[in-house]
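Format is sequence with structure; example below:
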Amino acid sequence: MSILSLPKLPSISKFVGSSWEFDTSTGGDISAAIVAASQGSLFIHDNNDPDGIVHEVMYVGVGLAMGSPLPSASYATPDMFSTGVGPVVMPPTKAALYVNDFAGTGFIINFSGGAFAGRAYTIVFFGFPFVRAALRIKSKSYTTPAVGMSGMPVWFVLDP
């Protein structure tokens, strides 16, 4: 594996749906040359929870980027367009997801582009290298003019 290749991750197409759904996100990222850094929060909820609690999963990560050789940055707020592409999914060997499945190591792959008002498609893996859950997100962000992708290991923390 070369330094610019991404690690082998499981195919989301083999995962099964769960009762968890993505609500919105907030965060920001910067990249320059081949390095990217990101921090933010994902807001998720369990449809089986009678209290309807929305959980905040905060993350921070540093990884590799490919795209514009110029430095770029983007950010998004919770009120901006951001939607899950299907439910949060899990490996077929898991019976259910629990809130603690979203804490710890992870990996985020992001494809984005735009000028001032950008678009992004993000795949989030909770658990790395052993994936416990995954999430796909389409979103809008404010960005410097750029097109690219990033892949980064991240650390997830649940806001109690």
